[in-house]
Design a protein that fits this description.
With 289 residues, this protein is of the alpha/beta class. The chain folds into two domains: 10-153, Dimethylsulfoxide Reductase, domain 2, CATH 3.40.228.10; 160-281, Rossmann fold (3-Layer(aba) Sandwich), CATH 3.40.50.740. Helix content is 31%, strand content 16%. The chain has helices at 31-41, 72-85, 100-107, 111-122, 137-146, 160-165, 191-197, 212-215, 256-267, 275-281; strands at residues 18-22, 46-50, 63-65, 127-131, 150-153, 179-185, 202-207, 219-222, 231-234, 240-243. A five-stranded parallel sheet has the order 3-2-1-4-5, covered by helices on one side. The protein has a three-stranded parallel sheet with strand order 6-7-8, with no helix packed on it. It has a two-stranded antiparallel sheet with strand order 9-10. α1 links the parallel β1 (18-22) and β2 (46-50). α2 runs antiparallel to α3, α2 packs across α4 (111-122) and α2 runs parallel beside α5 (137-146). The model has no long low-confidence stretch (mean pLDDT 87).
Amino acid sequence: MVNKAFETDLKALQVAGAVMVVDVDLVKDHQVAGFFIKRKLSAGTNLLVVDKKENGLNPFANKVLKAGKGSNAEIFKGLIAAVVKLGLAKGKTAIKAADLDGFAAATGLKTDDYLDAAFVLTSAEKPVFVYENGTDLAVLKELADVVEGELLSLKGGSNSLAASQLHLDKTFKINGHKAAFFAIGDGEASQKSVKEFEKAPFKVVLATYASALTGVADVVLPSTNWLEQEGHYINLEGKTQWAKIAITPAEETWTTVQTLNALAEKLGVKLTADWTKEMHERVSVVEIS
């Protein structure tokens, strides 16, 4: 069986009759997608929010599913069972209406909550499912297929898609390494990453600002911020964008690329500048057989 793309892009939000947002606050993050959704609400688009935490879109939603326990997979299956029970399934599924009670119990939600949420999705045309974390993606796609909907992955922030394509989104792990180099730039490291970084005997950080990460480093190399450098980035739709310099950096402050090139030269490591070839040779990291 040949794998094929199953995701849509931001344009789908402009024609969606219903949107389900999963575990991402579009008021705080990915505000372009959030703007598209909020603009459509006044035109009658239904909104369902699935999030165990408080979400900035909750006040705008027709229905909020805030499970007290269980997994997203169980929530998605509960929604499929609810759609089947309403007699509104358009695609095939092995999940039955009788399964609804079990999924409701597993997630701490009422069956009526699922039925209400299922109606929000199925009472409109062209539903779109917006998610950031690909966990339980197969079940989410099954739900989308059952209601003839589309999936929209936000893939983290700018260049997160590129990082995934180059396999740079793996868990940071010190495994007997004697030295670690952390090029954080003007980003932020998680507490888990900082604790793991501390395990390295010798630590180097390339950063724009002082942080907990630079606090544990043996050597800190300065870096420009995103306004002080130019280059390409890939947005969540996979489109290559060009960012121009907005502020001239101090002469002694290098960009991340300049620093990496200088280190590579000192270490005798050959770097390739043809990143476009590398990107195009990679198969999409988000796929379901």
